[in-house]
Write a structure and sequence with these properties.
Length: 890
C-alpha cells in the first residue's frame, strides 16, 4: 500500500513510498508456516519421538513490550486452530488436514514453584483426556506413581477442583488414569494390581520392561520408561515424564492421532534468578518434539544463548536453531518463507533489524533504498523502535531533500518536537509535569513518580500510568517506564511552551534522588532487598552524575552495602565516551564500576582504575578507604604483596568501616607468607566483619586438619546465611568443598554441587575458577586431570588471577603423588617454586614435598602451627587414603 503522505512530499515520481507496517495477519502466517513444517516433519516415516539429540524447531516465539497484544494474539491463534469458524477471513485457510488440539496456558497465574509445573502438566493431560477419550498408559502410570508419592491421601479429582483446573474433562482424567492402571495390569497378567498401591504396580511394570516382556513393552515400552519409573517420584522426575506422554501420542492409532499445540502465554512470569521454573518448561518443550509450542512473553527466549549453559539443560544455536535470531515483525514485499529458520518474532516496537528493514523498504528508488545505510542506522538508534519516530524521520528525510541537500546521519541525531507534541497534546498540565519528572527515571512506581514531581497525592501519577506512552511490567521492581523515544524527546524539549528550565530539571533530579534514597532506606530497615539496592544505585548514581548533585547522602551507605555481599551485579552507567570523573558522583560511579568489573577484567586494570579514582581527589572521604582497600585486594591477587600490605595497613590504621576487612587482609597476607602463628593470632580480633571463620578455615586446611577446617567453613557458611550474605556463603562453600576434596571424594561431589548452586547468579570470578580446582583435586589420581589443568591455567591467565596457578599446581602435585609419579612430582614442585619466588604461597611447595614424602629444603621459611613432621604426616595420610580409595599400591 502506498504511503500517500510521503508520495505527495516530492515532485519526483521516481521513488516509491510504501507503507511497511503490518497487522496480525503476518503473525498468523508465521505460525501457519512453522506449524505446517512441524506437521510435515513429524509425519515423515522413521520420525523418532525418542530422539533426544536432534535440534528442536517445534516452537515459535512472539515477544514485545507489555500491552502490545501478545495475549490477544495467542487467544486468536487458539481460536483459529480450534476451527475455521473462529479464524478471521483475512488470515486464510491453512493447508494442513491433520487434527490439532490447541491448549492455551496462562503462566501469569504461576510462579517458580513445583505446584505450578504440576498445573501445566495437568492442563495438558486434561485437554488430551477430552480430545482422545482414552488412556495414555505409559504417562498415566508414571503420573499416578508421582501423585501418590507427592500428594498422599489427596485424590486427583479433588485437587483439580481445588486448584481451579476443573472443566468439562475434569472427571475424565482420574478415570483414565485408573483405566491405564487396568491396561498395565492386564498386560502384566496381574489383575490383582488394579487396586494396589502405585509403587507395587510400578515395580511390576519396571520388572516386566527390564525382562523385555512383549505385552508390557507394546503398552508402555519407551526406551526410558523403566528408568523414569525407577527414579524418585518428585518434581524433577515429573519434568521428564513429558517424554512418556510424547511416546504415548506417537503410538496412537491413525484414526485417533492428534497434534497438540500448546500456547504458553506470559512466559516472562517464569523467570527468576536461577531459572528453576523455566528449566522445567524447557524440558517440556524438548521432550515433546511431536507437540508444537507457541510462546508469548515480554522478552526474547534466550535458549539459543550459550551463556545460559548450566542454567538450562539445552542451550545454544545448535539446540535451538530457530531462536538464534529474530525475524522482522513487519510485512515486506515477498516475505521469505520461515521454513526451519527464524522462530522468534518481535511484535510491537521494532527491533533494530525491524527498523532497518522498515526504512529500507519505505522509500525506494530504482529498486534500491533511498535512505542510505548510515542514515538508516542513525534513525534506528534514536527511534528506540518506536514506529512513530520512524515515520517522522522519513518525513524529515524528504523535507531535507526538498532543500536540495542530501540528508546525512547527523541530521537525525535529534528528537522530534512533533513526537512530543503528539504525546503531550491530550495530557493535563499536572500529567505533563509528571511526565517530565518521571523522564528522569529509568523506571518508577507511583510513589517515586509522586515524590519526584513534588506532589502530595498519587492520583495524577496513576492516571499517567494508564496512558499508552507508559509501559508496565507488573512483575518488575518498579513497574512503569516511559517509552525511551518519548523519554528522550521530553528531556531534549526546547520548543514546548511549558518546557522546563535547567533549574527545574535540577530540582526534580534532587527530589528524585531523595525519593530513591527514602525508598531504599525504608526497605533496608525492614526487609533488605538486593534487587532494590542495585536498582537504586544505578538510578541514583546516574541522577547525581547527570545533574551534578553534590550531596550524595544515602548513596555512600548504599555503596558499602553493595560491596558487603560480594555479588557484583554490573553498575555501569550509560555514557557515550566513558570520560574521566569530574564530579563526586562520577568518582563514586567509577569506584563501584571498577570494583565490580574486576570480576571480568584483569586485576592490573582494576588497580589502575582505582588509582586513577583516588588521584582525582573527588571521592567523598567516607569512600576513600573503600578504594584503598579494593586496590590492596587487587595488588594481593597480583602477588604484589608489599603494595597490598601497605594498602591494607593504611585502611586498618584508619579504623573505619573496612578496618575489620583490612585486618583480615593482613592476616591472609601473613598466611600467604607462611607465617601461620601470626595469622592465627589475628583471628580473635576479626569477628564476622573480618570473616574470622574464613581465615581460620584457610589456616587449618593448609595443615591438612580436615575436621577443624570443615568446622570453620561450616560455621562461616551458617554465619553468612544468618546475615543474608549470599556471596560470602558461596565462598565458604567453595572452601569447604576444597577441604573435603582432598580427604573424601564422595562428600566432595555433594559439596561441589552445592557450591555451584550457591555461585549461580553471583558475578564472582575467582571462586568459580577455584571450584574447578576443587574438581581437579577430587579427581586426582584418575585419568584426564592433566588436560583439564592446562585448560584451567589458560582461564586463570585470562582472568588475571595469577594466585590461582598455585592451587592448580598443588592439585597436580597431589595427583602425581597419588599415582607415584616421582618425576612428575619433581617437575610440579619446580613449577611451584618458580610461582612462589615472592614468598607468596611458598608453603604450597612444602605441602607438595609432604605429599610425595620428599624432605623439605632447609631454605623453607614456613612457620607451621605445630611441627612440620605432624603436618607432613597428616598430608601423607591423605595421599595414602586416596591411593587406597583408587586401589593403587603404595
Amino acid at each position: 500500500m502506498a504511503d500517500l503522505r510521503a508520495l505527495f512530499s516530492s515532485n519526483n515520481p521516481a521513488f516509491d513510498a510504501a507503507e511497511a507496517f503490518t497487522d496480525r495477519q503476518h503473525q498468523w502466517a508465521l505460525v501457519a508456516a512453522a506449524l505446517e513444517e512441524h506437521l510435515r516433519r513429524t509425519s515423515t516415516p522413521g520420525y523418532d519421538v525418542e530422539d533426544l539429540e536432534a535440534p528442536r524447531t517445534n516452537l515459535i516465539v512472539f515477544h514485545g513490550v507489555g500491552g502490545v497484544g501478545k495475549s490477544t494474539l495467542l487467544r486468536k491463534i487458539e481460536a483459529a486452530l480450534s476451527g475455521a469458524e473462529h479464524r478471521p477471513d483475512q488470515w486464510g485457510a491453512p493447508t494442513w488436514t491433520q487434527p490439532l488440539l490447541p491448549i492455551r496456558i496462562d503462566l501469569s497465574r504461576s510462579a517458580s514453584t513445583g505446584s505450578d509445573f504440576e498445573r501445566v502438566i495437568l492442563t495438558i493431560r486434561l485437554a488430551l483426556a477430552g480430545a482422545l477419550g482414552r488412556t495414555l498408559p505409559s504417562f498415566d502410570v508414571a503420573l499416578r506413581h508421582y501423585w501418590e508419592a507427592v500428594h498422599p491421601g489427596e485424590p486427583l479429582d479433588e485437587y483439580i477442583r481445588r486448584t481451579g483446573l476443573s472443566g468439562r474433562f475434569a472427571e475424565m482424567l482420574p478415570q483414565q488414569l485408573q483405566a491405564g492402571v487396568g491396561e498395565i495390569a492386564a498386560a502384566l497378567a496381574l489383575p490383582g494390581l488394579v487396586g494396589s498401591a502405585a509403587q507395587q504396580l510400578t515395580g511390576a511394570l519396571v520388572s516386566a520392561l527390564r525382562e523385555r516382556q512383549a505385552r508390557a513393552q507394546a503398552l508402555a515400552g519407551a526406551a526410558r520408561t523403566a528408568a523414569l519409573l525407577e527414579a524418585t517420584p518428585d518434581l524433577e522426575a515429573l519434568s521428564y515424564y513429558p517424554h512418556l506422554l510424547a511416546w504415548d501420542l506417537a503410538r496412537l492409532p491413525a484414526k485417533k492421532a492428534i497434534t497438540p499445540v500448546v500456547l504458553l502465554d506470559t512466559f516472562e512470569d517464569t523467570g527468576d534468578r536461577h531459572r528453576d521454573f523455566e528449566r522445567l518448561l524447557q524440558r517440556l518443550v524438548w521432550l515433546m518434539p511431536n507437540v508444537f509450542f507457541v510462546i508469548g512473553g515480554r522478552s526474547r527466549l534466550p535458549w539459543a544463548d550459550p551463556a545460559l549453559h548450566g542454567q538450562l539443560d539445552w542451550t545454544g544455536p545448535a539446540a535451538w536453531p530457530g531462536l538464534a535470531t529474530d525475524s522482522a515483525s513487519l510485512t515486506v514485499p515477498q516475505p521469505r518463507a520461515t521454513g526451519s529458520g527464524a522462530r522468534q518474532h518481535l511484535i510491537g516496537d521494532f527491533s533494530p533489524e525491524d527498523c532497518e528493514a522498515h526504512l529500507a523498504h519505505r522509500l525506494v528508488q530504482d529498486g534500491q533504498p533511498l535512505i542510505d545505510a548510515d542514515t538508516r542506522a542513525a534513525i534506528t538508534a534514536r527511534s528506540h523502535g518506536l514506529p512513530l519516530h520512524l515515520d517522522l524521520a522519513v518525513s524529515r528525510f524528504l523535507e531535507i531533500r526538498r532543500t536540495g541537500r542530501t540528508p546525512t546521519p547527523a541530521d537525525f541525531d535529534c528528537t522530534f518536537p512533533a513526537l512530543l507534541a503528539r504525546t503531550l497534546s491530550d495530557l493535563t498540565p499536572e500529567e505533563r509535569h509528571l511526565l517530565r519528572s518521571v523522564a528522569l527515571l529509568d523506571a518508577f512506581d507511583l510513589d517515586l513518580a509522586t515524590q519526584t514531581a513534588g506532589l502530595t497525592h498519587q492520583a495524577a501519577a496513576r492516571r499517567l500510568t494508564e496512558r499508552p506512552l507508559i509501559s508496565e511490567n507488573p512483575y518488575a521492581l518498579w513497574p512503569y517506564h516511559v517509552h525511551r523515544a518519548i523519554r528522550s524527546a521530553v528531556r531534549d524539549d526546547q520548543h514546548s511552551d511549558d518546557r522546563w528550565t535547567p533549574a527545574d530539571w535540577h530540582q526534580a533530579a534532587t527530589r528524585a534522588l531523595a525519593a530513591l534514597g527514602d525508598q531504599w532506606t525504608k526497605a533496608a530497615a525492614h526487609a533488605p532487598s538486593r534487587m532494590l539496592l542495585v536498582a537504586s544505585l544505578r538510578q541514583g548514581l546516574r541522577l547525581a552524575r547527570d545533574h551534578d548533585l553534590t550531596s550524595l547522602g544515602w548513596l555512600i551507605e548504599a555503596a558499602y552495602v553493595y560491596t558487603d555481599d560480594s555479588v557484583w551485579e554490573p553498575l555501569a552507567l550509560p555514557s557515550p565516551a566513558d570520560p574521566a570523573p569530574d564530579t563526586p558522583a562520577d568518582a563514586v560511579a567509577e569506584l563501584l564500576t571498577a570494583i565490580t568489573r574486576r570480576q571480568r577484567e584483569h586485576r592490573q586494570r582494576t588497580a589502575a582504575r582505582l588509582t586513577a579514582v583516588l588521584d582525582t581527589g573527588l571521592l567523598p572521604a567516607e569512600l576513600t578507604e573503600m578504594a584503598l582497600y579494593y586496590r590492596a585486594k587487587a595488588h594481593k591477587d597480583l602477588s604484589q604483596n608489599d603494595a597490598a600490605r601497605t594498602g591494607m595497613q593504611q585502611v586498618a590504621d584508619a579504623d573505619g568501616r573496612l578496618a575489620f576487612k583490612a585486618r583480615r587482609g593482613l592476616a591472609n597476607l601473613a598466611r600467604l607468607a607462611g607465617d601461620f602463628p601470626t595469622a592465627l593470632a589475628a583471628v580473635p580480633t576479626l569477628g564476622w566483619q573480618g570473616r574470622h571463620h574464613r581465615v581460620l578455615g584457610d589456616i587449618h586446611w593448609s595443615h591438612a586438619d580436615t575436621a577443624q577446617a570443615v568446622a570453620a567453613f561450616e560455621a562461616g557458611r551458617t554465619e553468612a546465611e544468618q546475615h543474608g550474605a549470599a556471596g560470602e556463603r558461596a565462598m565458604m562453600q567453595v572452601r569447604l568443598a576444597l577441604t573435603v576434596s582432598f580427604a573424601d571424594t564422595d562428600r566432595a561431589d555433594d559439596e561441589l554441587t552445592l557450591a555451584h548452586q550457591l555461585l549461580d547468579g553471583l558475578d564472582q570470578r575467582s571462586n568459580p575458577l577455584l571450584a574447578q580446582v576443587v574438581a581437579l583435586i577430587k579427581d586426582a589420581g584418575t585419568d584426564g586431570v592433566i588436560g583439564r589443568a592446562q585448560s584451567l591455567h589458560a582461564q586463570i591467565d585470562a582472568a588475571g588471577l595469577p594466585f590461582l596457578h598455585r592451587f592448580v599446581e598443588l592439585a597436580l602435585a597431589f595427583h602425581h603423588a597419588v599415582r607415584g609419579e616421582d618425576q612428575d612430582v619433581a617437575a610440579t614442585i619446580d613449577r611451584l617454586r618458580a610461582l612462589t619466588t615472592t614468598g607468596d604461597f611458598a608453603y604450597f611447595t612444602d605441602i607438595a614435598h609432604f605429599m610425595a614424602g620428599i624432605p623439605v629444603p632447609a631454605s623453607s621459611t614456613t612457620r607451621w602451627l605445630d611441627s612440620p613432621d605432624l603436618t607432613r604426616a597428616r598430608w601423607q595420610r591423605i595421599v595414602d587414603a586416596r591411593r587406597e580409595h583408587l586401589g593403587r599400591a603404595r
